[in-house]
């Protein structure tokens, strides 16, 4: 089957999902990852965003703090991958990633943005499915006898499997105030 013209920049959704991180409770992509997908230099992406800053409210993009940036580098285990970056990167939500494609005005960015949106949607669905399974599990557990130790152990094992995070991902970074 011949590829459609819009599939000329076919990128596996898994590759995009691997670039999506959780920062400040939001699923985001960093400027360097987004620029790589869109086929532009990171600096060109940042300049385009700054020229059109009115299109990027805080829920579309934000800049990582120095603390978040340091935590991100330490999680990756290889500070060399950042190329000696001096400034913390920008993080783009799903809407910010699409808006970035529109301000870049390149054909590749427009086509790849479709795959980026699909990756965000797929991750959202996976999270919703996981929550649904957890609710059903709790419902079933409430119905069974508390005396059945084997079934309780099975439920504990299933919960443990559900807690396992995606491979290669550490804990989410960002500032979380301590409870007093």
What is the structural class?
A: alpha+beta
Please compute the radius of gyration using only Cα atoms.
20 Å
- Tell me the series of helices and strands, N- to C-terminal: HEEHHEHEHHH
Proportion of beta-strand residues: 5-15%
Mean pLDDT rating:
77
Tell me, briefly, the overall form. Answer: elongated
> Helical element count?
7
Q: What's the main sheet like? A: 4 strands, antiparallel
Oligomer: single chain
Spatial order of the strands forming the largest sheet: 1-2-4-3
Fraction of residues in H or I helices? 55-70%
Unreliable runs: 1-8
Q: Between the first and last Cα atoms, what is the distance in angstroms?
A: 61 Å
Question: Secondary-structure blueprint of this entry?
Answer:
Blueprint lengths: L12 H7 E4 L2 E5 H8 L3 H10 L9 E3 L2 H11 L13 E3 L1 H11 L2 H37 L5 H15 L17
Antiparallel strand pairs: 1-2, 2-4, 3-4
Brief description of this entry?
With 180 residues, the protein is an alpha+beta fold. The chain has 7 helices and 4 strands; from the N terminus they run αββααβαβααα. It has helices spanning 13-19, 31-38, 42-51, 66-76, 94-104, 107-143, 149-163; strands at 20-23, 26-30, 61-63, 90-92.
């Amino acid at each position: 089957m011949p590829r459609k013209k819009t599939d000329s920049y076919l990128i596996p959704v898994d590759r995009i999902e691997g670039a999506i991180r959780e920062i400040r409770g939001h699923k985001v992509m960093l400027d360097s990852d987004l620029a790589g997908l869109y086929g532009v230099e990171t600096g060109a992406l940042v300049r385009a965003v700054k020229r059109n800053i009115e299109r990027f409210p805080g829920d579309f993009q934000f800049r990582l703090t120095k603390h978040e940036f340091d935590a991100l580098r330490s999680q990756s285990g290889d500070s060399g991958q950042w190329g000696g970056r001096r400034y913390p990167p920008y993080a783009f939500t799903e809407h910010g990633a699409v808006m970035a494609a529109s301000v870049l005005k390149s054909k590749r960015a427009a086509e790849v943005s479709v795959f980026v949106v699909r990756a965000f949607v797929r991750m959202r669905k996976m999270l919703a499915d996981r929550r649904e399974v957890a609710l059903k599990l709790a419902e079933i557990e409430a119905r069974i006898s508390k005396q059945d130790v084997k079934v309780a152990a099975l439920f504990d094992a299933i919960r443990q499997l559900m807690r396992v995070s995606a491979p290669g991902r550490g804990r989410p970074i960002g500032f979380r105030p301590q409870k007093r």
